[in-house]
Amino acid sequence: MEERIIKFIAALRTAGVRISLAESADAFNAVDHLGIHDRENFRISLCSTLVKDSSHLPIFEELFPLFFDFPQSMPQMDLSDEMSPEEAHMMADALHRFKEQLREMLDRLIRGDPLSQEELDRLGQLIGLTEVNDMRYREWLVQRMEKALRFREVQQAVQELMELLAEMGMNQERIEQLRKMLRNNQQALADQLRNYAGMRIAANMSKTPPGNNLEYIFNRPLQTLSENDLEMLRKEVRRLAAALRTRIALRQKRAKNGKLDAKATIRANIKHGSVPFDLKHKNNTLKPKIVVICDVSTSMRPCSELMLSLLYAIQDQISRTFSFAFIDHLEYISPDFHVKEARDAVNYILQKMPPGHYNTDLGTSLQNFTENYLYTVDNRSTFIVVGDGRNNYNDPRRDLFFTISRRANRTIWLNPEPPSLWGTGDSDMLNYAGYCDSIFQVGTLAQLTAAVDVLLTS
Q1: H/E/C letters for each residue in the chain?
Q2: pTM, 2 dp
Q3: CATH class of the 223-457 domain in this structure
Q4: What is the pLDDT of residue 79?
C-alpha cells in the first residue's frame, strides 16, 4: 500500500498539485493513525494532507479511485444462454452474412465477453496510450480505442442484424430484448475501455520524471502533450528551424555542382586560350515551392501548428509557400502567417471558423481547393497534406486528390497515426495513400522535424 500511495502522490504532482516532502510524510502519518480499512476515512486522510487548494479537489477525486478502488468487472450478459435453439440457429445464420471483423465483434457482444488484459494492452499500444500522462486526454483516447474496435460500424451492424432476424421470422418483442442486451454489452465494453484508459494514464503519471525533460517531451506523441509541454516545443522549434536552415542550405550548396556546362566553360576560359582551367557546372538545385493543407481540428492542431511554424521559420530555403487550413471547409491562411506567429495564426483561423461541434470533412475541403486554388499547384510544387485522414464518413473525393497529385511534382502526406490504424473506423487514409509519393508518420516533434528535413532536401 505504501508503494501505491507514493505513486498516487507522484501522479498528483504530475497533474499540477504541489505536494512537499513534509506533506507526503503527513499523509503517511494520517494513514497510520486512521488505517486503510475504512475507505472514506482513508480518502479523507489523504485529501486533508495532500490537497491545499480547492481547485485541486477534482484532480484528487478523479485519481483516487484509479489507484485505490479495485476495478469491477463490467456486468455483461451471455445472450446465447437466453436464446432457444431455433433463435440460436437464426442468429448463427444471420452472423454469417457479415464480414469477419464485424462478425467477431458481434459474436463477442452476444457472448458478453470483456476484453482481456492482453487485448487492452495491445489496443493501448496501438493508439499511443502508453505515452499519455494527462487525464484531460482520457475521453479522446477512449474514442480512439472505440474507433479502432469499429464501434460505430458495429452499431450499424447490430441494426442490420435485427432486421435480418425480423426477416427470418423472429418475434419483434424478442428482437427488441436482444437489441437492448447487445446495446448494454457494448456499453459495458466502452466502460471497460474508459476504466483501462484512466488506470493506464494514472500509472503513467506516477512514472513521469520530475522537472521539464525536453528530450522526453521531444519524443512524446503531440496529441498527448499538455499546454506547458507545447510551449516548450514552440520555443524548441525556433532552434530546430535554425539548424534545419543551415543543414538544408549546405546540402543545396554541395548539390549545385551538377552536369558540366560546356558553353559556360568555353566562355569562362577564352582568356586562357580556351584551355579549360575553370570548369563550370549547371546549377542542379531549385528551391522548392510548397503547397500545404493542414487539418486544424482538435486532435491535429498541435501537429499542424508546429509544422507551419517550421515551414515559415525556413522560408529563405523555399521559393514560395501557399498554406491552407481545414476542418469542415478550406481557409487560405498564408496572409495571416506574414503578420502573425504560427500559434497566433492558427488561433485566428479557428476563431474565423463557425463555433460548435466540428466534423472534419477533407472531401469538401479538396473541392474548395480545386475550385479556387488549383492554380497554386504546378510541376515545381511539392503538395503536402498534414492530417490523420479521418473524414467522419464523408465522401473522401479521391478523384479530386488524384487531380491535384497529378499536377504536383511530388505529393507528401504527414500523418501522426501509425499505418496499423489506417482504414479503421472513419479513416480514409487508404483511399489517398496510393496517390502519394511519400507518407511520413509524424506523431512526435522529432518525427516531424525529420520529415521536413527529408522533403526539403530530397
Answers
A1: CHHHHHHHHHHHHHCCCCCCHHHHHHHHHHHHHHCCCCHHHHHHHHHHHHCCCHHHHHHHHHHHHHHHCCCCCCCCCCHHHHCCHHHHHHHHHHHCCCCHHHHHHHHHHHHCCCCCHHHHHHHHHHHCHHHCCCHHHHHHHHHHHHHHCCHHHHHHHHHHHHHHHHHCCCCHHHHHHHHHHHHHHHHHHHHHHHHHHHHHHHHHHHHCCCCCCHHHHHCCCHHHCCHHHHHHHHHHHHHHHHHHHHHHHHHHHHHCCCCECHHHHHHHCHHHCCCCCCCCECCCCCCCEEEEEEECCCCCHHHHHHHHHHHHHCHHHCCEEEEEEECCCEEECHHHHHHCCHHHHHHHHHHHCCCCCCCCCHHHHHHHHHHHCHHHCCCCEEEEEECCCECCCCCCCHHHHHHHHHHCCEEEEEECCCHHHCCCCCECHHHHHCCCCEEEECCCHHHHHHHHHHHHHC
A2: 0.58
A3: alpha beta
A4: 63
